[in-house]
């Protein structure tokens, strides 16, 4: 009898959380979403937190500025008033450099290149950012792209991909409306 009550309470609690604060989303099996590697991969099912305002350094799901029916996944690397410079995998915000400090537990990862669909080896590093840390991927010996610089305007954010080698972020589509970036992946289910 006590087990029934416990299960019932858990079901009600899960329903309330689902209706007020959480969502479940399966990332499309789109090869361009490899830009979220090593944190997430195409086809991953994640729990999204819909409460609060995402801040600097947090991974977010935003409306795709180029396709109203799609999403982009990126890390907030610049908020209103920030000066952002990015060259290859080197990120500088307001003069502070955010770079990998240590290798990940698994320092090499393998992903499918979005254009060739061939497996590519990337290096994984841990980057402290926004009061926490996250993983970033880069290609060993990759030539650096031309530096991109942006001043983040009112109501906008600058997104960067965790995968610097195969990005799909503000370097490609520009600044994003902050109002569309309200959901944060907080847990990967599978």
What is the alpha-carbon Rg in Å?
A: 18 Å
With strands numbered from the N-terminus, the spatial order across the biggest sheet is: 3-4-12-13
Major beta-sheet overview: 4 strands, antiparallel
Overall 3D form: globular
- What is the percentage of strand-forming residues? 35-45%
Poorly predicted regions are: none
Query: How much is the average pLDDT?
Result: 89
Query: Total number of β-strand segments?
Result: 14
Structural class: mainly beta
The number of helical runs is 2
Kindly, what is the distance between the CA atoms of the first and last residues, rounded to a whole number of angstroms?
32 Å
State the share of residues found in helices, binned by percent: 10-25%
Could you give the order of the helices and strands?
HEEEEEEEEEEEEHEE
Briefly summarize what is shown.
The chain is mainly β and 190 residues long.
Key terms:
four-stranded antiparallel sheet; mainly beta; 14 strands; globular; 190 residues
Question: How would you portray this structure in words?
Answer:
The chain is mainly beta and 190 residues long. Helices cover 12% and strands 42% of the residues. The strands form four sheets. A four-stranded antiparallel β-sheet has the order 3-4-12-13. A hairpin with a 2-residue loop joins strand 5 and strand 6. It is globular, with a radius of gyration of 18 Å. The model has no long low-confidence stretch (mean pLDDT 89).
